[in-house]
Specification:
By secondary structure, the protein is mainly α. It has twelve helices and no strands. It has helices at residues 4-28, 50-58, 61-92, 95-109, 114-126, 146-157, 161-169, 174-185, 187-203, 206-211, 220-227, 235-265. Helix 2 (50-58) packs across helix 12. The mean pLDDT is 83.
Amino acid sequence: MRPPWRTAGAVALSALFVAPLVVMVLGSLQRPLQPPPDGLDLWPDPAELSNYAAVPRFLPLGRLLANSLLLVLVAVPVTVVVTSMAGLAIVLARGRLRRWLVGISVLMLLVPAAALWVPRVVLLRGLGLADTPVTVALLAFAGTTPFYVLLFAFAFARIPASLLEAATLEGMGPYAVWRRVALPLARPAAVAVAALSGLYYWSTFMDPLTLVSAPENWPVALGLRSLSEMEAALYPIYLAAAVIVTAPAVLAFAAGQRWFFSAVQRP
């Protein structure tokens, strides 16, 4: 039986994460063009569902959602493939080379993201690849973040070395070992990386802010940020847009959580 203090701690932690979502939903139902509520008096009376219908008047929501969906559909598979291959390369390396590869990955993980903004802009614009709906997805070819590479490396390291060596002795090349042996056995890591990278590309706005200047190519998170400059009296409409943007991620998690946790818990 779980101790009461652990149960109370879990409830408090859950409330800490859920409270902002509750405030966002309640705020989206407030009447616009009214003084903000006093203190924590957020309960709408009456609830203004018309705020959701008003969002497209301030934001091309359909196009922005389509851009974000395209971004996720391109970036997530590329991220899983690139980082899993890099993780397997680390595991198959021997001795000093493996230590160097792990050290470089950790070093790159410590580099501040802001330090890469200007080099990325210069590189992609020089190649003529900036300012498209999938420009941000090109970051997936660099693995998105070294953390995913290390996550796969740790997962592949748990596979018996004899199994990988046996696959090599049977004539499998590196690609066949990755696709037919290593990746199926690292399914939990693949699920975790897909989920984390999908959430990242759906919610990121700093990368498109630096790489995408045309509003018609913005993902929905960057479009939502543009609404944050609305006057305070219209903030219920901004919060309604935030609910619409957040809902797909929440619904995707609710629909796939059983499969996600069963995959992660599987040895």
